[in-house]
Amino acid sequence: MQTETINEQIDAAVAPIEITGGDAVMRALVAEGVETIFGYPGGAIMPIYDALYDYRDQLEHILVRHEQGGIHAGQGYARTSGKTGIVFATSGPGATNLVTGLADAMIDSTPLVCITGQVFAHLLGTDAFQETDVINITTPVTKWNYQVTDANEIPEALAKAFYIAKSGRPGPVLIDITKNAQVQKFNYPGYKPCKHIRSYRPKPVVRKEFTTAAAAMINKAERPLVIFGQGVILGCAENEFKAFIEKSGMPAAWTILGLSALSTDHPLNVGMLGMHGNYGPNMLTNECDVLIAVGMRFDDRVTGRLDRYAKQAKVIHLDIDPSEIDKNVKADVPVWGDCKETLPMITALLEKKDHRQWVNKFSECMEKEKEAVINEELNPSTDSLTMGEVIEQLNVLTKGDAIIVTDVGQHQMVACRYAKFNQTKSNITSGGLGTMGFALPAAIGAKYGAKDRTIVAVIGDGGIQMTIQELGTIMQNNINVKILILNNRFLGMVRQWQDLFNEKRYSFVDIASPDYVAVAKGYKIEGNSIEERKDLINALETMLNHDGPYLLEVFVGKENNVFPMVPQGCGVSEIRLK
Amino acid sequence: MNMKQEYTLTIYTENQVGLLNRIAIMFSRRKINIESMNTSPSEIEGIHRFNILINETEDVVRKIVRQIEKQVDVLKAYFNTNDTIIWQELALYKVPTDVIAEKVKVERLLRTYGARVVAIMSDYTIFETTGQREETDTLLKVLGEYGLIEFVRSARIAIIKDSKGFHEKLKEFELAEPTHHIIDEPISAAEAASKVV
């Protein structure tokens, strides 16, 4: 957001003018530097859409096919652009369709401002047409929400919404505006961006005592392990993070939301944590002497059984959200604050070190994992294709420069494990909530957030069918996203669990698919479907080189399992290679 | 640490519609029963004060207090055990006037429990007492023998013994950039564990 734009807006509005609430919403969006809105109109939000009609040269509105698609697109946009995603929806069903996306954005700390229409204020609580109690429905899944019933409240409510969504630990904000407030004319006082709310502390106080203690502990460590999450990306602290691990030569492993903050080929990048993460980081979590967690929240998919998690290690936890510290894993040194500030403070006090022997242990583990899992996954001896080799070929063709958007399930784990990334903000996935159907709409938003990048949405045959209607959005706007469906003719992850833990009782995981190429064709999107290895490279190349959206379906082995795996209820060092 | 006991939460908040729900669902989400809840003005105009009583372990209470304090419209949240607060509840008792009039013993009982008469009607009389749970409970039990018609008890309200109130704290909160600085002086580990701001 540019200060000049805001100032111009303020200046322009010095003389009070009478405008409608809907117009005030538009002015707020323009002042906040918004470029793209994802939305779907309806009765209760019509005055806002009417106002938008006059701003259609300044504000690009993408008409989605379902509000869930709209909010996931907003998330994809926010994650690739680093800006706040904007979503419009009408009252009632429009608003309730946002709930999954709000919950997803809440748990994955994605900044969103969602604006919903609401029935006239005098009808609130009367079961009016398309009335639903949106504020109370969305309270647990929003960082903040607010109902506007008078146009005079609009500028301040939106200013607060933008400030809250983006500052501190980001999250979704919902503003519900009654229809009377949208049409109401009022004396517009101009738009003042919000910079401070007295009851809200986006950043905790940095205590030098703890950054010093952290540095001292790292300096003494013989086997330090750094584990990092999305906090590094949200804090725009990728460089600070790199400097931090490089100075004392510490191996660093990532959560799936931290993925791409550190380039894949960095010598200290030792891979992925958690249930389907790499063997080394999981095993050696229980061998390190100091565990340094940066901008991550010790999710249960990362830690496995907590009472068997890093019990031997001293824990340093850097987080901007004080309620994350000690929530799951007790920190010996709690470093509250934005890691963009705290990392350099610690780095400055670090001794130059090189834990080569310790880092080599990760390489040894990687060799073991290659032998047991990776080699067969990337160069299979079977006739059927594996998901891993598809991702590997994609790496070769994109050279690690693409943005990979994944859905949820086996393909997600495989993509995160094998995709290569050179740039940050390049791995877009639904981590905390695990929302199937996320990828296709998120890819749409991802493209608007990073227009010059290649976007590849990797999706399973289950997830694609949850939000497949967004092909319509792609068609209408000719959005250049590449849709790569990895079809194993099963709900693969649930099937894998049934295979491993339920004696192959494949209960309702056998999912049929339509002819995706024909469906794409119906939406005037080019596509192809392949099943054989000899066609893979060409098919991927065609997809990537195609000018415009493209759908490629790749049939892969039906009953392949993702390994390694830390079974639920096990400690991380009980990771299974098969 | 892992024994359940009574904790009284004191939460300073903005006076915002919907905040009561936002706070209440943080307990229900974790299936924690709220024993009592009171909202009232505080010593500062425009700032509300919640008192919430729950029976939980310190670990659970500490975590939930941090989650509460994270809410945008919450200024500060404290948790206290019973020995660190002064607390009271108010109780009202409705008894038949004729029974009271006949039995002098009742009046003596009321004096014993510091109750006072709020209303006397021809058919009923209402007494009131404030105190801790045992006191209001004992009177409840006693009056039960004299044809108690109705009973109601308020939520717990509490004052933290060593609190200096919120006036000074509020000044900190109202600074334009209240949190964007680095504190140089050390704090104790106990303080670090309990303080969030």
Outline:
The complex is a heterodimer of chains A (578) and B (197). With 578 residues, chain A is of the alpha/beta class. Helix content of chain A is 38%, strand content 17%.
Q: What is the strand content of chain A? A: 15-25%
The chain pair with the largest interface is: A-B, 34 and 37 residues
H and E string of chain B: EHEEHEEHHEEHEEHEH
Helix count, DSSP H or I runs of 4 or more residues of chain A: 23
Number of strands of chain A: 21
Give the arrangement of secondary structure elements.
The complex is a heterodimer of chains A (578) and B (197).
Chain A: H1 3-12, E1 17-20, H2 21-31, E2 36-39, H3 46-54, E3 60-63, H4 67-81, E4 85-89, H5 93-96, H6 99-107, E5 112-118, H7 134-138, E6 144-148, H8 154-166, E7 172-178, H9 179-183, E8 185-188, E9 206-207, H10 208-220, E10 224-228, H11 231-234, H12 238-247, E11 252-254, E12 269-272, H13 279-285, E13 290-294, H14 300-303, E14 314-319, E15 333-336, H15 339-349, H16 356-378, H17 387-398, E16 403-406, H18 410-418, E17 427-428, H19 439-449, E18 455-460, H20 471-477, E19 481-487, H21 492-501, H22 516-522, E20 526-530, H23 533-545, E21 550-555
Parallel strand pairs in A: 2-3, 2-4, 4-5, 5-7, 6-7, 10-11, 10-13, 11-12, 13-14, 14-15, 16-17, 16-18, 18-19, 19-21, 20-21
Antiparallel strand pairs in A: 1-8
Chain B: E1 5-14, H1 19-29, E2 34-41, E3 47-56, H2 58-70, E4 74-81, E5 85-96, H3 97-102, H4 104-112, E6 116-120, E7 124-131, H5 133-144, E8 150-153, E9 157-160, H6 167-174, E10 182-183, H7 189-194
Antiparallel strand pairs in B: 1-3, 1-4, 2-3, 5-7, 5-8, 5-9, 6-7
